[in-house]
Protein: CHM4C protein
Amino acid sequence: MSKISRFFKGGGSAASKGRGGPSPQEALARLRETEEMLSKKQEYLETRIERELAIARQHGTKNRRAALQALKRKKRYEKQLSQIDGTLSTIEFQREALENSHTNTEVLKNMGYAAQAMKKVHENMDLNKIDDLMQDITEQQDVAQEISDAISNRATFGDEFDEDELMAELEELEQEELNKGMRDVRLPSVPSTSLPSHPGKLPACHFTFLIIKPCSSTRRRAEDEDEMKKLAAWAS
Structure:
């Protein structure tokens, strides 16, 4: 029995008959077998057409009757070849449609499996619990941010004092330093000799002593004041 006979007379397996029809895989396999068979038939017809042409050329006008018979056979073979071309196009279209349908069926089946799996996963999930969990997460993030802000702020460690009291104490210290500086100043001794009647004729040594001492004390006081100002600026 030929392949096409088995295809149209039902050469399917008992399992497919028991299910009431072939599976998509079985139908696709049958279609591919039919395509293969028709392709071989095409090759056979093309060979016969070439042979009949050769016969027609061989006889030509010498044996017109034989040449005409060969051309008639060639025409029949060409007609069969054209019919096979149309059949192959139809089978190819049907096979592609079946393949697409099978693909869509598998896709839908897998999507159904995925939907069932998602449903099973979501069975143990409570939306209210999820909302509570998200609120807890938000609160803990806020607490963590507050802790980070508290740690990053500069710690004062009791550095908050009354600035007026500090300034008063600083002024007292400054006054003590000035008093101490005044105590360290040594006044010149009274000369034993009588002073000249004209001030411009004072001894050079006495004149120099009287001028330098006050200048040194004034410069020291100015330096002390600068130090006090720097100390006040640092304390504030």
Summary: The two ends are 114 Å apart (CA to CA). DSSP finds seven helices and no strands in the chain.
